[in-house]
């Protein structure tokens, strides 16, 4: 017998029948509301003139509306092309060099037949992922510093010592190399899992057809992981506006602002250090909205490719 | 099957490439470990040498007699322990209802939570919130603003979903409520997944430095990574790590010793965690 429950009954049941599950959800839900959604509400100071040198959230209400003034100031300032340019160039370099690195490593790792050796390589290459950016930046500064081995080598070979960390010419290269160093091993995990799913019979059939190891990579391994590569590529495109604040902040200095200053580092210096809260909130919001749009579009695209989407 | 000459060359070249990759991975770490125990004179004469002929421990002696290093170390250890424990507790409490198909608020909450992975208030509104909550310059600023990570929540929820409903139903017939089911049945079955997310949380807490930068002015309460960041980025490092040590070793020796000291705990637990994080990455990234 199907009896239509009244709304009141449904609401009552929602609370009485599941009260314990609600109770379990409560601390986590409160956390998300307070620490994730309240700051989203706080974004309205991007349209106000927040003067809360001492005040907090309450000072939001007291400040005056200024509409889109902060956005206009930012978009017409000389900062905008610089930050946008650096963000896009770094993302482009990342797409070109950081993205393919784990694919290449995974394919080569798959060709290692000795299991113990393969495992050792995996253990060693995953490790840098677990070091903090502070440590990675520290290692880099020492290795390429004036007293470090790289400059010692250059001098030994008759060249002249280069101060790499403050060189606008080299700095982006250092960012990319250090990111590859830190993440390449960890990045192979997803691809290795996809390769592991390939039927061994396919390799055997290819061998019978006379395919050598290189041809097997081209005709069996790569097609097998092409789908996951496409998905990862699309998701990476969604992150074009995401700048790696931790990495850049721990490595950069004033000498390389021209090539490495990105949205978040600028927001930190101008907003937190300079107490210019409303203006930098507008800068951050501008970036976040574009990011959200990109993630939305790319997530849709990856779903069309047959993935369940990232989430 | 006999392997052709081309195959053999391929294998050898491939193994050489792998050895080269490993060398590139290990070199920076080994170099800094070696040089952290190298005297200044030896380093000036042989900058390319990896390990010292005659170890010089003054960098470590200085670091280990610096009160600010010790207090940062203790703060960080306490942060990892308290932070990770609370992370696991709150994350499991939230993941369990989200894994139950019958729970009516499940869809709504999942959308509410995953949206925060794509969009956030950003640095400034977060900063203002934490300031007005009075969390600045308290230990809790390290723990409370990071209680649940959506990525780890999804990993755990997916593990919980794999537990068959029949186990839960039979427990219900025996009179168990949802909380006891989570504690007595679901969590004991999910030890590996709890270890996985616990590990991600612990590494996060150990490695995070920017919340000290944003919210803590007392350097005795900085986490070890932020203290290290200050040692690396500043030239007047003796202010940051004042020490009762009689000798003042060169800045570079102190920096390297501090890098080693701040990294060793990660390197020590790393071999044990490897099998867990591989699983976590796959559950988290492939299946949402």
- Could you tell me the CATH topology label of the largest domain in chain B: MetI-like fold
Biggest sheet layout of chain A = 2 strands, antiparallel
CATH architecture of the largest domain in chain B: Orthogonal Bundle
Task: Specify which chain pair forms the largest interface.
Answer: A-B, 98 and 98 residues
DSSP, total strands of chain A: 2
Q: What portion of residues of chain A belong to β-strands?
A: under 5%
The first-level CATH class name of the largest domain in chain B: Mainly Alpha
Written as H for each helix and E for each strand, in order along the chain, the element string of chain A is HHEHEHHHHHHHHHHHHH
Strand order of the largest sheet of chain A: 1-2
Q: Summarize the helix and strand pattern of chain B as letters.
A: HHHHHHHHHHHHHH
Specify Rg of chain A, calculated over alpha carbons. Answer: 26 Å
- How far apart the termini of chain B lie comes to 43 Å
Tell me the name of the CATH homologous superfamily of the domain at 69-131 and 181-304 in chain A. Answer: MetI-like
Strand content of chain B: under 5%
CATH first level of the domain at 69-131 and 181-304 in chain A: which class? Answer: Mainly Alpha
Plain-language structure description:
Chain A is mainly alpha-helical and 311 residues long. Helices cover 71% and strands 1% of the residues of chain A. Chain A has 16 helices and two strands. Chain A has a two-stranded antiparallel ribbon with strand order 1-2. The mean pLDDT of chain A is 90. Chain B is mainly α and 288 residues long. Chain B is built from 14 helices and no strands. In chain B, helix 4 runs antiparallel to helix 10.
